[in-house]
Each structure stands twice: as C-alpha cells, then as structure tokens.
Amino acid sequence: MTERRICGVDEAGRGPLCGPVVAAAVILDPARPIDGLADSKKLTARTRERLAAAIRERALAWSVAEASVEEIDRLNILHASLLAMQRAVAGLALLPDEVLIDGNRCPDLALPMRAIVGGDALEPAISAASILAKTARDAQMVELDQRYPRFGLARHKGYPTAAHLAAIRRYGVAHFYRKSFAPVREILVNPPLWREEESA
After folding, report:
1. Angle at 88 between CA 64 and CA 119, to 5 degrees
2. CA 71, chain centre distance (Å)
3. Fewest 10 Å CB contacts: which of 1, 155, 172, 173?
4. Going by DSSP bridges, is the β-strand pair 61-67/98-102 parallel, antiparallel, or unpaired?
5. Do 88 and 66 touch, CB atoms closer than 8 A?
6. For residues 93 and 136, what is the distance between their CA atoms, to the nearest angstrom?
7. pTM for the full predicted model
8. CA 188, CA 169: separation in Å to the nearest integer?
9. SS3 category, 51
10. pLDDT digits over 86-113, tens only?
11. Distance from the Cα of residue 9 to its chain's centroid
C-alpha cells in the first residue's frame, strides 16, 4: 500500500505594508525525513535557509506562488492569501491525497482539505511550507532593498515598524506598497511635503 500524499500549505507576508503575499505547498517524502521542521517564525534566518534547501532537495514535490500587490489591493489580503495558496497547490508536480492548510480558512481547491489553526507548529508538511514561503518572501524583500535602500526593507521585511513608517512618510509611497493598507492609505491622503524621486 502506498503512503498517502499529504500536502502542507502556508503563506508569508499578510502583515507587511508592501510586496506580494507568498504561499508554498509541500509534499514531504516519508522516506527522507527532515529534522528540525517548525513554525518558520520560531526559527533563525540561518536555520530557515538551511531547512529550505533541505526541503527543496528532499520533498516529493514543492511549489511557491504569490498574489501581487495589485491583487491584494483589489481582493483584500485574506482573499489574496487564499489565491496564492491555490496557485501553490496548482503548481505541484504531484497530486496530493489531502491538503492541510495553516489557519482557519481553505482556498478553493478540488481536493480533500482541512484548515488547522496553528498548523505550522503541528504538522511537518505545513512547517515545511511556512519555511519555503518565508524564505522566498524575505529574499524578495532583500532584493527590493538593493533597488530602494531608503526604506530599510532588508531589516524589517516590509512590516510596519516605526522606522519603516517614518521612511514612507519621508520618501512617499512607492509602487510596491499596498495602498489598501491603513498606514499606507493615510500617507497617501496626507503625503509628505518633500519627496525624493524614486530610483529606477
């Protein structure tokens, strides 16, 4: 009897003020276990990178997908997150027997699925998905920081820290910001008096 293919799904980037929301789907290989899987938020950046490499190497299948800033602003962050999850599962090279979703809402899938609150700390496949999603999104923020260093994205990864909000107030809202999010919307309504031009 072949083992059932369990797919874990999680997202990263619901809270930040900018960039896409990223989701990952992972079907782990029971014959190639990975030690140390846990909720990505509880791991150091170095540990996440090490585990992400192991997941990509040893998993039976994995996929990373996203929903864009424009989709977040159009749909809202919840529905954009569910869309990214749907895309991640669709991108798998293997069809899972069951999909386990972190959280309390499931995306629109024609597959057996369950939502598990706190699943990224309970189910190894969801933990693996949370690690892939988090490392993929963090890498995007580091890359964006190289082009727009004034916002400090490599440090806070787009979350609404005091320094980040101060930078947006000073330099204005760049094209990669989520204009539907309240702190960004407030700055758009009351723009800074002086604004340095965006770099190309």
Report:
1. 90
2. 14
3. 1
4. unpaired
5. no
6. 19
7. 0.93
8. 9
9. helix
10. 999 999 999 999 999 999 999 999 999 9
11. 11
- What gap in Å lies between CA 94 and CA 90, rounded to an integer? 9
- Residue 200: what pLDDT? 38
The Cα 120–Cα 101 span in angstroms is: 9
Q: What is the pLDDT of residues 141-192, one digit of tens each?
A: 999 999 999 999 999 999 999 999 999 999 999 999 999 999 999 999 987 6
* Beta-sheet strand order (sheet of 113-116): 61-67, 21-27, 6-12, 98-102, 113-116
65 forms bridges with which residues in the sheet? 23
Bridge partner list, 101: 9, 115
CA–CA separation, 73 vs 176, rounded Å? 11
Terminal CA-CA length for the chain? 57
124: part of which helix (H) or strand (E)?
Answer: helix 124-147
Q: For domain 6-138, give the fold.
A: Nucleotidyltransferase; domain 5 (3.30.420)
Residue 31 DSSP SS3 = coil
Closest listed residue to residue 26, CA positions, set 108, 134, 158, 118: 134
- Listed by start position, the domains of the chain span 6-138, 146-189
Encoded amino acid at 44, one letter:
T
